# Entry
Amino acid sequence: MKSDTVAVHGGYETEPTTRAVAVPIYQTVAYEFDSADHGAALFNLEVEGHRYSRISNPTTAVLERRVAELEGGLEALCVSSGQAALNYAVLNLAEIGSNIVSIPQLYGTTHTLFAHILPGQGVAVRFAETDGADAIEKLIDEKTRAIFCESVGNPAGNICDIEALAAVAARHGIPLIVDNTVATPILLRPIDYGADIVVHSLTKFMGGHGTTLGGAIVDSGRFPWKTHARRFPMFSEPDPSYHGLIYTEHFGPAAYIARCRSVHLRTTGAVLAPISAFLLLQGIETVALRVERHVENARRVAEFLRDDPRVAWVNYASFADNPYHRLAQKYFGGRACSILTFGIEGGFPAGKVFYDALKLFKRLVNMGDAKSLACHPASTTHRQMSTQEQAKAGVGPEMIRLSVGIEHIDDILADLDQALAASQAPDVARLVAAE
Ligand code: PLP
# Structure
């Protein structure tokens, strides 16, 4: 079925006991066994069923199925946040002493995870100079366990050539992991272009209403873990933490998610609450409609800003002079996402006045809400990075990031117009001149 339909129905068939049409919230910690043998069989993974909600839950299972289907993957695991999903996605395949290679344009906390936290756990992250396939390939060696990219960088707005990165990954016998949060599967399905694993912050466009944190890891089921068993012994050798289970033997192509659930989620517990799974499912039902409106409103905002003399620059991938225009054509049919960045005349001081003058746009650190949102990455989401790291991630001091919402476009443009007027007032011009 088409994505619009999967978003509404995927993963759920009317519950047989109550005939509930909406997905029930299974607010339970545990599940009763028929007998001692049944309990043992469940723990031996010989029969299907839920045991304890830190491992799986029926409401969350619907969300997992729905996200997997939307991304064209085999299996998914949902966890408590996008960050937990990123952490598990990497740790599930990288042992101490190994490395992963990443593009430089990342969401700030992902950069912090990669630059400071994973190395402390023995996994090095090598940041390429650019998001190009050549720059990535240069850094791969025998110890590399994955390539990582954001399909659309937050906030840089760069578009990765997933097909090219997937070809490099395949050549070196390692998977390509793609954070598809900004794009959503409505605009782009990385697995269709050769990605092996897709990660999401469901907190953003998928949930779509700024109410609920959640993350997902989706596996294409295509990476040949057994062929590369020397590099990825955790999937093909007996797991001492799970009474000797061999994931590739027991789960076949579903080995990656099975191990992620049995090892990482079970033992470190970044669990998604059933009520959160329910709220995210509600949001996902309308994701196709919302994304369409987000994208159309963002196009109107980008054109408005580009044509306004009070604006110094606009970074929007579908403009013909944008360096990522060709990739926007290839992966998004010429459209661009609804995250865009810009700087206004007068630089940082005028930008600050603009930001404070916004009335409809919310000043915060989030994106993908139905509401229009504005963020100043250099002082917030990317604050932990050095100036050089910020520059490599595509973050400048005067940059403002907009997540364009689904309100009426006239109201969105009116708010931007009045804030731009405030930013160019004579007293601000004097302030700018004095800087
Ligand atoms: N990935 C991207 C691209 C993000 O923008 C974010 C958060 O902004 C995350 C991951 C982390 O998601 P969460 O806030 O759900 O942990």
Observations:
- The chain has two domains: 3-283, 287-434.
- The chain is about 40% helix and 10% strand.
- The longest strand covers residues 144-150.
- The mean pLDDT is 96.
